Amino acid sequence: MRTGDMVWAVVLTGISGCLLVPQTHEAFIAATRVHPYLMGFVKVGILATMGEWLARRISGATWAAPTGLGWRFFIWGLFGVAFALVFDIFAAGTTAVIGKGLLPAFSEGFPAELSRAFWTSTLMNLIFAPVFMAFHRVTDGYIDAGGGRLADIAEVKLESVVSRIDWAGFVSFVLLRTIPLFWIPAHTVTFLLPAEYRVLVAAYLSIALGGILAFARLRQRPTEAAGGTNA
Q: Which of 41, 93, 96, 130 could form a disulfide with 77 if both were Cys (CB 3.0 to 4.6 A apart)?
């Protein structure tokens, strides 16, 4: 294990360990209730950026910092603020439409909780997630095209960013595979948890997905190389 691997693991373990210590756990819950947007920014900003770093480590075998690391953290933090709002919107909205009989669901016990969580996850991932994911592709495109420097990012044209995105791959893999196979099941579990933990768990899931996507890219490389040889 390299030094970078150990540092990354220690940081993640330290963050996770704070949730297991009663004093820091209580402080975390209290802060999340009082300052949901600020905590959403911090939690998602840190953990999702760590997920991006992990994906680059798996793909490139080094811990080289992503281009515009500070801006990526800031964008993830803003997404964390959005998650704090969106999660509650879909949780409350789904509960309301189930109560009106607009969605099939069990009425009592754990099956009722599971069906509510499943529908909340499904609706959120079909309605909100595609927009969020596409917008994130665009923000990443701006950061990459501008080399992470604000002055250069401001000069980048939207048309240039959009034209460089692999939209076919985005739809065929990110939308049609990761949403039904990863995000809907994962967020079903997330919505079974108390509200204070949902944004945090979503941030942890971004780390897991970062690893999955990195491994997927590694598996594609031999295929691409073979295709180039055959050509």
A: 41
Are 80 and 44 within 8 A, CB to CB? Answer: yes
Which residues, including other chains, have CB under 8 Å from residue 20's CB and lie 6 or more apart? none
Torsion 191-169-78-7 (CA) sign: positive
- Counting residues of the chain whose pLDDT is more than 90, the rounded percentage is 55
**What confidence tens digit (pLDDT) does each residue in 156-196 have?**
999 999 999 989 988 998 899 999 999 999 999 999 999 88
Could you give the maximum distance between any two Cα atoms of the chain, in Å?
Answer: 62
Is 94:119 a contact under the CB 8 Å cutoff? yes
Contacts of 21 by beta carbon, 8 Å cutoff, 6+ apart: none
Residue 192 carries which side chain, given as an amino acid letter? L
Q: What is the rounded CA–CA span in Å between residue 32 and residue 26?
A: 10
Q: Which two tokens stand for residue 86?
A: 């969106």
The phi, psi pair for 217, rounded to 5°, reads: -65, -40
Say which residue the tokens 């109560």 belong to. Answer: 99
Name the pLDDT band for 66 (thresholds 50, 70, 90): confident
146 and 153 Cβ atoms separated by less than 8 Å? yes
